[in-house]
UniProtKB/TrEMBL annotation:
Acyltransferase domain sequence ranges: 52-354
Transmembrane annotation, as ranges: 83-104, 116-135, 147-165, 229-249, 269-294, 301-321, 341-363
Positions of the UniProt region annotated as Disordered: 1-47
Keyword Glycoprotein assigned: no
Name the UniProt record assigns to this protein: Acyltransferase family protein
Alphabetically ordered keywords of this record: Acyltransferase, Membrane, Transferase, Transmembrane, Transmembrane helix
Length: 400
C-alpha cells in the first residue's frame, strides 16, 4: 500500500517535472484528456501539475486495501463477503503496483533519486518494521514477538518490494522483453518453496510483473481504458467476476491471491504455480482495467488524499491488528449483514482520515524524513550553485 510511493516520463512523451510523493509512488502526472493534455504541455514548460486521475486511483485503491483487511477477520461466515474479498484482492494491489511502476520509468539510480528512495521507502520500512512488532508485544502482551528487518511483517512487505523493484528498474529498461522475463521469474518463484520468507521474496517476485508492466506503459495506455465504452463494458465484466468469485469461494484456496507462497506450500502440484501466475495475471489485468475505467479523472473531494496513501496504508494496520488482538471482530453482530456494512464504512472512513494533511504533518518524520544531514551534497549541484552566485556577483558589478 501502499504506500511509502519522482521523476517520470520518457523522451517521447513529456511528463511534468519530478516530485516525489509521500507514499513511495512518484507524484502522479499524466495527461488523460484534452484539458489534461493541456496541463501536461504547461507542465513541460515548468509548471508542476498533479494529475487527478492517478491521485484518485491511489486513494480508491488504498481504501479497498483497508476494507479488505477489515473484512478478513469476519469474512469466514459469509460467502457473499468472501466473494467480494476475493474479487477485490484480485486487482487492488496490482493496480497500485502498476501505478508505482509507471512513475518509476525514469529512475536511473542517480544520487538524488537514490536519496529519495532511501528517505521515502527504506526509512519508513525500517521504522514500521520495528514499530509493528513492538506494537504486538504491547497490545497482545506477546514478549516473544521478534524484530527482524529481513522478515517483513504484515504491511511492510510492500515497502521492501518497492525498494527492490525500483533498484532493478534500470535492468528492466535495458532488456528487450522485460514483461515476459518478469512473468518467467514469477512462474519460477511459484515452484521454488525453498525461497523462504527472507525479504518476502515470493511476493517480490510474484508481484514483479505488475511493476514491470507499469514500467512498460505510456500515458496513452491509460487513455485507452478510460473511455465511455470501457466504462460500460466494465459493468458486465465486474458482474461476471463476482459470479465467478461466488462459484470459486468453496473450491479455491484464497491464499493464491496473496502471492506469498509456492504451489507446493499451498498443497498444489508444482505445475499449478506457473498456470496460476498466468491465469491470475490475466484476471488481475482485466479487473484493473475495469477499475481504472471507473476512476474519475476530474478533481474530486478526495483527490488531494492521493498524496497521502502511504500514511493510510501503514497506519491503518495498527487499528486492524488492535481489533484482531483485542477481539473486537468477535462480536456476533459484526458477522451479520449490517455489521459487515458497518465494518466496511468504518474501514473506509478510518483510512480516509489517515490520509489527511494533519496526519501527514504528525507522521512526516517517519514517512518523509528530509535527512539532509545523512547525505553528501551533490557535486554538480554545488557547482551550479557556485556558478549562479558568481554570475549574480558579476551582474551586480556591471550594474554598479
Amino acid at each position: 500500500m501502499t504506500d511509502s510511493l519522482r521523476p517520470h516520463g520518457n523522451n517521447r512523451t513529456p511528463l511534468p517535472p519530478t516530485q516525489q510523493s509521500a507514499d513511495g509512488v512518484p507524484s502522479p502526472r499524466s495527461p488523460q484528456s484534452k484539458q489534461a493534455q493541456g496541463d501536461a504541455r504547461a507542465a513541460s514548460g515548468g509548471a508542476k501539475q498533479r494529475d487527478a486521475f492517478f491521485d484518485n486511483a491511489k486513494y480508491l485503491a488504498i481504501v479497498l486495501v483497508a476494507i479488505g483487511h477489515a473484512w478478513e477477520p469476519i469474512k469466514g461466515d459469509s460467502r457473499t463477503l468472501e466473494t467480494m474479498y476475493t474479487v477485490v484482492y484480485t486487482f487492488h494491489m496490482p493496480a497500485f503496483i502498476i501505478i508505482s511502476g509507471f512513475f518509476s520509468r525514469s529512475f536511473d539510480a542517480s544520487p538524488g533519486r537514490l536519496q529519495r528512495l532511501i528517505t521515502g521507502v527504506a526509512v519508513p520500512y525500517i521504522v514500521f518494521e520495528t514499530a509493528y512488532p513492538l506494537f504486538k508485544r504491547w497490545i497482545d502482551e506477546d514478549p516473544s514477538q521478534e524484530i527482524s528487518l529481513l522478515d517483513p511483517w504484515y504491511l511492510t512487505w510492500f515497502l521492501c518490494a518497492l525498494f527492490i523493484w525500483r533498484m532493478t528498474t534500470p535492468i528492466w529498461k535495458m532488456v528487450r522483453w522485460p514483461l515476459p522475463l518478469a512473468l518467467g521469474l514469477a512462474m519460477l518463484a511459484t515452484v521454488s518453496p525453498e525461497i523462504g520468507d527472507d525479504l518476502d521474496l515470493q511476493r517480490v517476485l510474484q508481484f514483479l510483473p505488475y511493476f514491470v508492466l507499469g514500467l512498460c506503459m505510456k500515458p496513452e495506455h491509460f487513455h485507452m481504458v478510460r473511455t465511455r465504452t470501457m466504462r460500460i463494458a466494465a459493468v458486465p465484466v465486474g458482474a461476471v467476476a463476482l459470479a465467478f468469485g461466488w462459484w470459486a469461494v468453496p473450491r479455491m484456496n484464497t491464499a493464491w491471491f496473496y502471492h506469498r507462497d509456492a504451489a507446493q506450500e499451498l498443497g498444489a502440484p508444482w505445475w499449478a504455480g506457473p498456470v496460476m501466475v498466468l491465469a491470475m495475471f490475466g484476471c488481475s489485468l482485466l479487473l484493473t482495467a475495469c477499475f481504472f475505467a471507473w476512476v474519475p479523472g476530474r478533481h474530486m473531494w478526495f483527490t488531494a488524499l492521493g498524496a497521502g496513501t502511504l500514511y493510510g496504508y501503514l497506519l491503518h494496520g495498527f487499528f486492524v491488528k488492535a481489533g484482531d488482538y483485542q477481539g473486537w471482530f468477535e462480536a456476533a453482530w459484526l458477522h451479520r449483514p449490517l455489521g459487515e456494512i458497518f465494518v466496511t464504512v468504518v474501514a473506509a472512513a478510518g483510512v480516509t482520515l489517515l490520509c489527511t494533511p494533519p496526519v501527514q504533518r504528525v507522521f512526516r518524520f517517519a514517512m518523509e524524513p528530509r535527512m539532509e544531514w545523512a547525505f553528501k551534497r551533490d557535486a554538480g549541484r554545488l557547482a551550479r550553485e557556485r556558478e549562479k552566485r558568481e554570475g549574480a556577483a558579476a551582474r551586480e558589478k556591471v550594474n554598479a
